[in-house]
Amino acid sequence: MNDTTIALVTGANKGIGKETARQLAALGHTVLLGSRDLERGRAAARELDGDVRVLALDVTDDSSVAAAAAVVADQFGRLDVLVNNAGIALGWAVPSATSLDDVRGTYAVNVFGLVAVTNAMLPLLRRSAAGRIVNVSSDLGSLTRQQDPASPYYGQLPLVAYSSSKTAVNGITVAYAQELAAAGITVNAVNPGYCATDLNGHSGQLSAAEGARVVVRAAQVAADGPTGAFFTDGGTLPW
Ligand SMILES: NC(=O)c1ccc[n+]([C@@H]2O[C@H](COP(=O)([O-])OP(=O)(O)OC[C@H]3O[C@@H](n4cnc5c(N)ncnc54)[C@H](OP(=O)(O)O)[C@@H]3O)[C@@H](O)[C@H]2O)c1
Questions:
Q1: 6 phi and psi angles, rounded to 5 deg
Q2: Which atom belonging to ligand 1 lies closest to the Cα atom of 64?
Q3: Which of 16, 155, 166, 218 has the most Cβ atoms closer than 10 angstroms to its Cβ?
Q4: Burial, 182: exposed, middle or buried (Cβ in 10 Å; 0-12, 13-18, 19+)?
Q5: Is the shortest distance between the CB of 15 and ligand 1 below 6 Å?
Q6: Is 154 a catalytic residue?
Q7: What is the 2 CA–ligand 1 centroid distance (Å)?
Q8: Would you give per-residue pLDDT tens digits along the chain (239 residues)?
Q9: How many whole angstroms separate alpha carbon 53 and alpha carbon 42?
Q10: Which SUPFAM superfamilies does the record cross-reference, listed alphabetically (predicted)?
């Protein structure tokens, strides 16, 4: 078996995903740069060093997800790291003014897409000596933080679409972590922090590269854990 780590990052043509791909490639991993648009993916890959290969993957499209899994199976026969990074944030309004379309659209990518990709890639992750799943969540998804008056977001957020979608990601993380512990596959959620990306009009204080660091750390946890955790820079977050 080829012992190079095979890592797939969804939504890796820009932002935190692209920087995660860059950092994983710098570790010597073979990186599958997931992109729903091949040209955007190729443009990103050209900016990265190392073994980076573009993989067409729209997480909301079942046939695209199945085709991506088939490509990984054909070319590598296994997957070692899955980073569920693709995400969007529709509906920046108070809950009562948020449209159902924005909730559905956000969940389609952040929640249903994540589950679809995870399930499609799981047979390949089970063939890894140490499979790792990293779900890119957000501190906005922490119910504990949402109700903490000391939180910087208290009173302005949560967003009914985005924040609750990340709460769902957290719940999904715990569920898969429990199921997959016996298979030796770790499943963790991460909060990259408030990064300047297209998602937030580049209003974040951190760079996408800084945000990617915790993603990469979670992609390298030991085979025997931790799993079912919610990592942030320098520690863990409450659910
Ligand atoms: N930025 C922050 O402050 C922050 C904080 C906490 C968590 N996060 C999370 O970090 C992750 C990355 O966000 P980002 O800030 O880097 O945002 P971004 O720059 O907007 O990147 C989002 C990525 O997701 C992709 N994507 C969207 N819909 C997709 C689909 N249907 N299938 C596949 N890929 C799709 C985008 O592709 P296209 O270019 O084709 O649209 C893009 O590559 C998200 O899960 C986000 O919720 C971000």
A1: -100, 120
A2: 32
A3: 16
A4: exposed
A5: yes
A6: no
A7: 30
A8: 568 999 999 999 999 999 999 999 999 999 999 999 999 999 999 999 999 999 999 999 999 999 999 999 999 999 999 999 999 999 999 999 999 999 999 999 999 999 999 999 999 999 999 999 999 999 999 999 999 999 877 877 779 999 999 999 999 999 999 999 999 999 999 999 999 999 999 999 999 999 999 999 999 999 888 999 999 998 999 99
A9: 8
A10: NAD(P)-binding Rossmann-fold domains
93 contact partners, CB below 8 Å, separation of at least 6? 102, 159
Domains defined for the chain, CATH in brackets: 6-236 (3.40.50.720)
> Ligand 1 test: best mutation among 8, 9, 14, most atoms within 8 Å of CB?
14
Closest ligand 1 atom to Cα of 14: 43
Separation of CA 71 and ligand 1 centre (Å) = 23
Active-site residue (options: 14, 153, 154, 162): 162
Tell me whether residue 166 is one of the annotated catalytic residues: yes
Our answer on whether the CB atom of 59 is closer than 6 Å to any ligand 1 atom is yes
Task: Report whether the peptide linkage leading into residue 152 is cis, meaning its omega lies within 30 degrees of zero.
Answer: no
Please tell me if the CB atom of residue 30 comes closer than 6 angstroms to any atom of ligand 1: no
